[in-house]
Write a structure and sequence with these properties.
Layout: E1 5-10, H1 16-28, E2 32-37, H2 47-54, H3 72-78, E3 82-88, H4 90-98, H5 104-111, E4 119-123, H6 127-130, H7 133-145, E5 148-149, E6 153-156, E7 162-166, H8 170-180, E8 191-196, E9 201-204, E10 207-209, H9 216-227, E11 231-236, E12 248-251, H10 255-265, E13 271-274, E14 281-283, E15 301-303, H11 307-314, E16 319-326, H12 330-340, E17 345-350, E18 362-363, E19 366-369, E20 374-376, E21 380-381, H13 382-399
Parallel strand pairs: 1-2, 1-3, 3-4, 4-5, 8-11, 8-13, 11-12, 13-16, 16-17
Antiparallel strand pairs: 6-7, 9-10, 14-15, 17-19, 18-21, 19-20
Helix pairs in contact: 1-2, 1-8, 3-5, 4-7, 9-13
């Protein structure tokens, strides 16, 4: 991390003591660390601790020393390679989600451009606070805008309760920072095609068939691959998500539109990850005018092209990854799909499990490998799961003689 500039924001929580260790690890890796503390954070750890560790003065206010510029908040938002807020309290994240800027740290977060400087929040709070709907809504809003959330751990909290809300450990945050900054660049020179989201098939000008896919898994994979140095092509059905900067993005609506873009791009890519929930059927004929209410309506459906099966038949050097979302008999259905479509890796999940499937920030999956191996992964954020999947792809390609 030599030469990397990191702004470490610290808000008021007992987990602030962990941030001292994190600062030490970043300095040891060669990074330059500038600490920004809220007034509440100073009640838990003295600024002197961080100025001693980093060799730099701690910024605490827009109006007091060591501030020497009226635009310090802009400088702190423009100069770093990455901003990490650890711990991130419910109050701080609420301000970031709603655009409130009433101190130095919240003002820096309002001024940052996420396409130039990634921002990571490491939440830390009581379980009841973390599970509060207002906090969950704020987290969802931050993710939607492109902020990265380092999901807290479950365990014993400072208050004595046991549950979700412990700040991620410094070593975990260091790994996430490295991945976000693509320091490993282990996918440099590789081209990765990701499909995401649902497709829509029109019934008439105002109605369509679709599914519950939010696209979060595919967008997380595209971002992770980009951060690890890959050239990324993202082909996405309609979602509420913003595509990551620095990728080729193709928005589509129907299965046939996705088919055309994917097949056109396929010969030039090394890895394909098909997370999109593509409609299997479409109406044979879409009505030109809105269908009026009748006592009975009969529809004739026809099959859409099977993109994944077509890729399996055409693949040459490509490593092909599929996703199977099931509600029963997960492994048997996933294995059959893997063999039928000539896949190299299958990511299977039971969407009836809490924390898995569509419209969640987390997932629980099992990985099926060529040759019959199965690996179960625990509940984790889709951001972290994306890196786990990329790690497994890299290792599997190495084993079968592909390029690392």
């Amino acid at each position: 991390m030599r030469g990397k500039k990191i702004v470490l924001g610290i808000s008021g929580g007992i987990a602030a003591y962990k941030s001292a260790e994190l600062a030490r690890l970043l300095i040891k890796e060669g990074a330059t660390v500038q600490v920004v503390m809220t007034a509440a954070a100073e009640r838990f750890v003295a600024p002197l601790t961080f100025s001693t560790l980093t060799g730099r003065p701690v910024y605490r206010s827009l109006f007091t020393e060591p501030v020497q510029s009226s635009t310090v908040h802009i400088d702190l938002a423009r100069e770093p390679d990455l901003i990490l807020v650890a711990p991130a309290t419910a109050n701080l994240m609420g301000k970031a989600a709603t655009g409130i800027a009433d101190d130095l740290l919240s003002t820096v977060l309002l001024a940052v451009r996420l396409d130039e400087c990634p921002v990571i929040f490491a939440p830390a709070m009581n379980t009841a606070m973390f599970q509060n709907p207002a906090v969950r809504d704020n987290l969802a809003q931050l993710r939607k805008r492109g902020f990265i959330i380092a999901d807290p751990l479950s365990g014993e909290l400072a208050c004595g309760e046991v549950g979700e809300g412990r700040m991620a450990e410094p070593e975990q945050l260091l790994t996430l920072i490295k991945r976000t900054l693509a320091i490993s660049d282990d996918y440099a020179g590789e081209s990765v095609l990701v499909t995401a989201g649902p497709t829509r098939e029109s019934l008439d000008p105002v109605r369509f068939f679709s599914n519950h896919s939010s696209g979060r898994m595919g967008y997380a994979l595209a971002l992770a691959a980009r951060n690890r140095g890959a050239k990324v092509i993202l082909v996405s059905g309609p979602t509420a998500l913003n595509p990551p900067a620095g990728i080729e993005f193709y928005p589509v609506t129907t299965a046939r539109e996705m088919y055309d873009i994917v097949l056109e791009s396929f010969p030039a890519v090394d890895v394909v990850i098909k997370t999109a929930a593509v409609a299997d059927f479409r109406p044979e004929l879409a009505a030109e005018q809105k269908i009026k209410k009748k006592d009975e309506l009969q529809l004739r459906l026809v099959r859409n092209p099977d993109i994944l099966e077509e890729l399996g038949a055409r693949k040459n050097k490509q490593f092909l990854v599929g996703f199977a979302a099931e509600t029963t008999d997960l492994l048997n259905y996933a294995r059959a799909k893997m063999e039928q479509k000539n896949l190299d890796l299958m990511v299977a999940n039971d969407v009836t499990q809490p924390g898995a499937g569509f419209n969640t920030e987390t997932n629980i999956v099992q990985l099926l490998y060529r040759g019959g191996g199965v690996e179960a992964l625990p509940l984790m954020s889709k951001d972290e799961l994306s890196h786990q999947i990329l790690d497994r792809i890299k290792e599997a390609r190495r084993k079968i003689g592909g390029r690392e």
